[in-house]
Design brief:
The chain is α/β, with parallel strands linked by helices. It folds into two domains: about 160 residues, Rossmann fold, CATH 3.40.50; about 100 residues, ProC C-terminal domain-like (ProC C-terminal domain-like fold). It has eleven helices and eight strands. The protein has an eight-stranded mixed sheet, sandwiched between helices.
Length: about 260
């Protein structure tokens, strides 16, 4: 069965490109994209077919990757069947709203991806709707795993997931930006400061992922008594870094709940 993408923006492209990398034939992928130039780019780059919404009825899986304000109206217009699967990557649209728009007994899986999916390193959480079975979850996970790591969570946790991993890349970008600027302040050329900070972030993330060690243990391995690192960490703690991150996650969780309401 083919897969149809409603929306061919950055996230839609990340997922369809991942499918093709994983061995899915371009002939099995459709995209509905209103922007003519964008549709032409996708067909030219990936060899997929750009179609109108009427042809979505033929697809086994429909990936909803359009802007949140148009999701419900678009889904409701499709006339979907219970033998199809809807996978939504639209932020803030609840399962209840997705299911009401998709139609009775249509299986729906809601997901929360983040932007590193664009480079195949996403963190994606999925939640099953009332008509979605374990098989549907497996199908959704296989599709989304082409763009990164997938975890299954109850929908009640998606606001917190949004705050930690959905918005999380921005927190790291801010820290790296601050580190680069600090390096420049203390005499490093900006290009060198950027290379040092970005590679350090990449190396630290890789160490956490590959060793499986707790961040505390990895932090302690860098921290010598009376050395430079403990002096820096003391300054960060005094500056309220830990509390600021907790406040950021709380604010993002609250805002996610407001948007989804």
């Amino acid at each position: 069965m083919s897969t149809a993408f409603l929306g061919g923006g950055k996230m839609g492209e990340a997922l369809l490109a991942g499918l093709i990398r994983g061995g899915t034939s371009a002939a099995e992928i459709r995209v509905v994209e209103r922007d003519v130039e964008r549709a032409a780019y996708l067909t030219r780059t990936y060899g997929i077919s750009a179609v109108d919404t009427a042809e979505v009825a033929e697809a086994g899986t429909i990936v909803v990757a359009v802007k949140p304000p148009v999701v419900e109206e678009l889904l409701a217009s499709l006339g979907l069947r219970p033998d199809q699967l809807v996978v939504s990557v639209a932020a803030g649209i609840s399962l209840a709203k997705l299911e009401a728009a998709a139609g009775k007994d249509v299986p729906v899986v809601r997901s929360m991806p983040n932007t590193p999916a664009l480079v195949g390193q996403g963190m994606i959480a999925i939640s099953a709707g009332s008509s979605a079975t374990a098989v549907h979850l497996d199908d959704a996970e296989r599709l989304l795993a082409t763009a990164g790591k997938v975890v299954r969570v109850p929908e009640s946790q998606l606001d917190a997931v949004t705050a930690v991993s959905g918005s999380g890349p921005a927190y790291f970008f801010l820290v790296v930006e601050a580190l680069i600027d600090a390096g420049v302040v203390f005499g490093l050329p900006r290009a060198l400061a950027s290379e040092l900070a970005v590679q350090t972030a990449l190396g630290a993330a890789t160490m956490m992922a590959e060793t499986g060690e707790h961040p505390v243990a990895l932090k302690e391995a860098v921290t010598s008594p009376g050395g430079t690192t403990i002096a820096a960490l003391r300054a960060l703690e005094a500056g309220g870094l830990r509390a600021a991150i907790a406040d950021a996650v709380e604010a993002a969780t609250r805002r996610s709940a407001e948007l989804g309401g």
